[in-house]
Amino acid sequence: MIVVNRFRVAPEEQGSFRVALEIARDALAARPGHVGATIGRNVDDPGLWVLTTRWENVGAYRRALSSYDVKLYAVPVLYRALDEPSAYEVVEPGTDLNVERTRSLG
Questions:
Q1: The model's pTM
Q2: Angle at 22 between CA 76 and CA 54, to 5 degrees
Q3: Which residues contact 4 (CB under 8 A, 6 or more apart)?
């Protein structure tokens, strides 16, 4: 599973945001089921940042979000993410994909 969080960051916040994002990445990386993570900044629009994390499965990601360190160090940064879908299944030859359907909100 891949999680892509994009962020819009004002020029005067770039330095402090980078530090906070690196700490958030490290907190997520310490959780079971974490496979890898990448931080990026858009080459054409330096105010646009991305944190991409990879997980063994959706359960590992959801459990990571409930850990104390992630709540303390990563969730405040993740709240700043652009409001858009962020979780993606990996598409590889021969894999079965989720069935498209409306998800229950409650």
A1: 0.86
A2: 90
A3: 50, 51, 52, 86, 88
